[in-house]
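Protocol step 4 of 5: obtain the predicted structure for the target chain.
Materials: sequence only (see below). No template structures provided, no constraints applied. The aim of this step is simply to have a reference model before the mutagenesis design in step 5. Sequence pasted as it appears in the construct record:
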Amino acid sequence: MSVHSLAAVVLASILVGCAGTPANPRNAVDSLFRDYDGPDRPGASVVVIHDGQVVLRRAYGLASLEKREPATPDSNYRLASLSKQFTATAILLLVQEGRLRLDDRVADVLPGFPPALREVCIQHLLQHTSGLWDYEDFVPATQPVQVKDRDVLALVSRVDRTYFPPGTAVRYSNSGYAVLALVVEQVSGVPFARFLHERVFVPGGMRSTVAHEEGVSQVSRRAYGYAPGPGGFVPRDQSPTSAVLGDGGIYASVVDLVAWDRALDTDALLRTETRKQAWTPPVLPDGTSSRYGFGWFVDDDGGRRRLSHHGETCGFTNAIVKYPEQRLTVIVLTNRAGGAPWTLAQGVADLWLDRPANRPWPFETLPNAH
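Step 4 output (structure tokens):
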């Protein structure tokens, strides 16, 4: 049975009490995650935050197959593209302080940014409207040395044009968020990983979260990545692009992401007006909404504002869905390639909502989103 079918069967079979209060949430969630639960499988951690409180927190499977270490809510997974909301927050902190403007041209802020891309602004990078080519297109699978954020400048310089004039369309670009990490370093004078630690993670109450740099920092309670193979799961923890921080290099646990979610709902890091701006996608010249704010997909789910993001990288697949007005957030982290954690996250969220979601996640229709 597919994950989609399983979610539908589970939801249909659960007796629900008053609206937003599932009668038996633990059993329902266990059923949804049964493919991750076992003594020989990579795992998953899930948390549900409702009305400011953790109402469910579970873990399944193993964080390390080799060491037989079980996954727990404290296991730290590589977030992949869930990292983008932290990169966006770092930029917005500099904007709040008046050290950067959203309409600044990147070429005027960041030395070495290709002159041919002079019309690209900070806001374009945040909203995936820059038209930058993805640096992964220029990195062979046999690349012997891992690419880092600084290398992205040289890679995107190989093309002297953008996919479209900046600001006129939307195309998901990991390059944009790697460049934003470099902008943070340039403007703050502090290495990006340290800036995140000092200005985002610590103030946000995220005690074990780290923008991981091999040989520089350590990941405590680390979950290792795997992929399905002919005879079972095989290690698949690193790729040539796994060391790029701005677009996907953060490790965190669902426990720390609870603290992050609370910070998002207060002025702990960003002011209310700044958060509102981050959660508002631009209207494109053709009159359509891009459905991407600053580090978040944003869409309308039957009259409910829905914030979401997925993350896919070597050996990890993750998802977060947040309904600000309903005060509901669901986070799913997994240490295996493949699967559909976004379907699981939405299935779990539907248990607490007064009616199931009636729209697919916006990333499923956005060009190049991965």
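Step 4 remarks: The chain has one domain: 3-365. Residues 1-19 have pLDDT under 50 and may be disordered.
Proceed to step 5.
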